Amino acid sequence: MKALMIMTTVTMLTASPLLAQERQGEDPRGYVAALGGFATSLGTSGNTTGDLRFEGGVRIAPHVMVTATLGRFADLQPDLQPTLSSTTASLAGQGIIVTGSGSLPAWYGTGGVRAEIPAGSHVLPYVLAGVGIARLNPSPSYIYSGGIMPGGFTFSAGDDVTTTLITTGSVATLTPSTAPMFTLGGGVQVPAGPRVAIDVGYRYSRINADTTLNALSLNANGLTFGIGYRF
Question: What is the mean pLDDT of each run of 10 residues along the chain (231 residues)?
């Protein structure tokens, strides 16, 4: 962490000529950026997941751009947990004891607006907002602990019985679904070369998840780090 802070400080102190070089010309027509980081659920579970995104924008006014983002959350597991808990409780009532787990990756796309704030020669702050949709792809998993399985199948503790439970109709198949989302955030760009900048940003995301997974919306805070090119 100390080394990262030293590197960031040195980069910012040496960035002034690079940013000044860009500002002598026309306000860039747009930008593209690749970013990666993490997002943490604001729910009681506090789940943390990876967040990968690609962004781009086109200038529509001085220091204002219309943007598009394509990204992926690696695992929004808290949004799957209510379904897992309900299913395992229902199976327990039938004498089938299993442990539920799984993953919920999600691709998402948003469009919005980004406003840059000329604030000095070392960094270029910005704020943004966007709306779009998330594609949720649940993958539940049920591990056998005990009880009599449907169809007379015999399993040992620790076996994955997901396929058997689905084919026998004991649990419902969870299909991919879409849900609306919006995001708010901001960050700073630190020049690393002519037209090239290191991007450090914060994002708040809210996904109004499919009610078959969770009746509550998923809220997450995230940090992203990446590199962008201003053209």
Answer: 40 42 61 94 74 96 95 89 90 94 94 88 88 94 93 89 92 90 94 89 88 76 93 89
Find, among 41, 50, 6, 2, the residue nearest to 225 by Cα. 50
Task: Give the domain ranges of the chain.
Answer: 2-230
**What is the distance between the alpha carbons of residues 180 and 205, in angstroms, rounded to a whole number?**
11
Side-chain-side CA neighbours of residue 17 (13 Å): 2
2-230, CATH topology level? Porin (2.40.160)
* 205, β-bridge pairs: 183, 220
From the CB of residue 5, how many other CB atoms can be counted at a distance below 10 Å?
Answer: 9
Cα torsion angle, 28, 30, 32, 33, sign:
positive
Q: Please give the Cα distance from 10 to 100 (Å, whole number).
A: 48
Total-model pTM: 0.82
Distance of alpha carbon 42 from alpha carbon 107, whole angstroms: 19
Which of the 8 DSSP states describes residue 176? P
Q: What is the DSSP secondary structure assignment for residue 95, as one 8-state letter? A: T
Closest alpha carbon to 25 in 197, 195, 198: 195
